[in-house]
Amino acid sequence: MRGGRLLRSPVLWVGVLFAALLLRIDALQPLLQLVFPGIEPVIYNRDSFLSLFLSQLGLVAVASLAASLVGVALAVFVTRPAGRDFRAMVSALATVGQTFPPAAVLAIAVPMVGFGARPTVIALFLYGLLPIIENAVAGLEGVPYGVREAAEGMGLSAWQRLYQVDLPLAAPVILTGVRVSVTIAIGTATIGSTVGALTLGTPIFDGLVANKLPFVLEGAVLVALFAILTDLLFARLERWLQPAAD
Amino acid sequence: MIEIDKVTKSYRERVVVDSLSLTVGAGELCVLLGSSGCGKSTTLRMINRLIPTDSGSIRVGGEDVTLVPAEALRRRIGYAIQSIGLFPHWTVEDNIATLPRLLKWREPRVRDRVSELLELFRLDAPSYRGKYPHQLSGGEQQRVGVARALAADPELLLMDEPFAAVDPITRDALQGELAHIHRATGKTIVFVTHDIEEALRLATVIAIMDSGQIVQLGAPLDILERPANDFVRDFVGRQGLGLKLLSVRKVSDRLRRGETAEGEPLALDASLGEALSAMTARRTDRLPVCDAEGRQIGVIALADLVR
Fold it and tell me: Which residue in the set B87, B99, B134 is minimally distant from A155, CB to CB?
């Protein structure tokens, strides 16, 4: 029964397709040569797709992890009595971070921290903060008043209320924010290739510069699969996190 | 058990509790009764320091509440509220065990305590302990809420309109259970309500509140028979006063000892209201009365009700 459910799961199929393309894209060489005659080489070969993927995964993981920690910490702060006055300011700052185009963040960051991974991580971090803060604030404020009053009235300390009541109850909503943030970060990370970060966007930009459409296609398809697979995995996690009820 | 001494609380310019003093003895079930906005909930919440006082002092068990850390104080005081506030991500067992586990009770003792409390509220322990709050009816949720408040065997129980949101039949059952628990455990309880019938049924002492002050303090019968002023008279309700008196007075006050009558006997601690109801239903004017062991000890007659 478990095997049947696994076979019907889109996570499995998208995952298999993604892994196959990542490792054995050269198997498509005859097909691509047929579709794009006269382009040589037809498959991007300056870096392996696996190393590009791992590099992008690292950038996204570092930026999203930092954005999640900072975002949830800020949301916790502005939903406690001591930080309530800062709520509007934190929301405004996060919104500014979101309206700033990532390309502009890269342009400003490069002179300060140099080319490569660092400006990309900074841009992804700032860009990913808003959905996490917004969802975490909504989740924490969504804890029913009666539940909070009961927890306080029973004598749970502020930390105990946060760890045992507020955060577990807000977790599904917080996770939705992280999911949105990570999915955006995967797409946005490709722009990092313009400042020298290695991502699956690198073949896209190389292909555009050298007018080699197959490179663009290969990079774009792999990035899309990467984003879809991540989103599906988060959906799984969300379902698993839903109250253990029923 | 509780000594409230000239406590005042205002929000901005509005005085909510106005130099209020009240002493509740150990084992009493004191009902704070009043309409909304009279300061009864604020008074209750100042006892466990959910709301700080502006002036005056509150002592619980002889100890000034502001001299104890708030969390330590609250762990000694059970707290049950209208919205119940069960933790939706925890099972019934985990909810009830919240405080015992915070207090680092050993797990077998926690489990025994949960079973004991579930049985006290007539919930079958094996089938209920693993359920989640959303799987319970409103009445069951409130039973678990009160069980959770009693879990660490607090010296004092504060209840803020706990039964206001459940249907009348369930409320009646819950009131019966609370009265039973109060008799069985002898806990001191402070109970806030706006419902006069509920107050008359449960209280050993009623404090009627208006505009942040206590207008009258007394036993239920005192309040009905000797209202301090027109406010109390209006609040108690001029209509149906006679029936309320019957619901508070006991058969034991009017018993004719030694006489006998036919039929199903009444209990000695039944109210005269129950006696009237039984007489009306059975079309009789005399009913036998038995004591706690079921021995017939006398008779109550219709004429005794209006003596």
Answer: B99
> Across the interface, do B89 and A155 touch by the CB < 8 Å criterion?
no
Nearest Cα residue in chain A from B148? A154
Percent of chain A with pLDDT over 90: 59
Among residues B88, B90, B102, B98, the alpha carbon closest in space to that of B130 is found at: B90
Considering only CB atoms, A146 lies closest to which of B85, B102, B149, namely: B85
d(CA A12, CA B70): 52
Rounded to whole angstroms, the Cα distance separating B129 from B137 reads 14
ipTM of the complex as predicted: 0.81
pLDDT band, very low/low/confident/very high, at A245 (cuts 50, 70, 90): very low
User: Which residues on B lie below 8 Å from A155 (Cβ)?
Assistant: 70-75, 99, 102
The CA dihedral of B57, B60, B65, B70, to the nearest 10 degrees, is -150
A-to-B residue pairs, Cβ atoms closer than 8 angstroms: 70
Q: How far apart are CA A50 and CA B304, in angstroms?
A: 96
| Angle, alpha carbons A230-A233-A234 (nearest 5°) | 90
Instruction: Report CB contact under 8 Å: B86, A150.
Output: yes
- Put simply, whether B102 touches A (Cβ < 8 Å) is yes
**CATH code for the domain defined by A50-241:** 1.10.3720.10
- B262: phi then psi, degrees, rounded to nearest 5: -85, 160
CATH fold of B2-244, please? Rossmann fold (3.40.50)
The beta-carbon neighbor of A156 closest among B50, B81, B102 is: B102
Give the domain ranges of chain A: 50-241
Q: Please give the structure tokens belonging to residue A141.
A: 């404020």
Which residues, numbered 64 to 123 in chain A, qualify as contacts with chain B under a Cβ-Cβ cut-off of 8 Å?
A: none
Domain ranges of chain B: 2-244, 250-305
Alpha-carbon gap, residue A195 to A176, rounded angstroms = 30
Quote the pLDDT of residue A2: 55
User: Least CA distance to B80: which residue of chain A?
Assistant: A150
Reduced to 3 states (helix: H, G, I; strand: E, B; else coil), residue B231 is: helix
Residue A246 has pLDDT above 50, yes or no: no
CB–CB of B145/B153 below 8 Å?
Answer: no
Would you place residue B64 in the very low, low, confident or very high pLDDT band (cuts 50, 70, 90)?
very high
- The CATH superfamily of B250-305 is CBS-domain (3.10.580.10)
pLDDT band at B238 (very low <50, low <70, confident <90, very high): low
Q: Which of A154, A168, A169 lies at the smallest CB-CB distance from B74?
A: A154
Model pLDDT for residues A135-145, shown as the tens digit of each residue: 999 999 999 99
**Residues of B in Cβ contact (< 8 Å) with A164:** 87
Shortest CA gap B206–chain A (Å): 24
Q: How far apart are CA B59 and CA B70, in angstroms?
A: 13
Q: What is the pLDDT of residue A3?
A: 57
The model scores a pTM over 0.95: no
B288 interfacial to chain A (CB closer than 8 Å): no
Does B132 sit within 8 Å of A243, measured CB to CB? yes
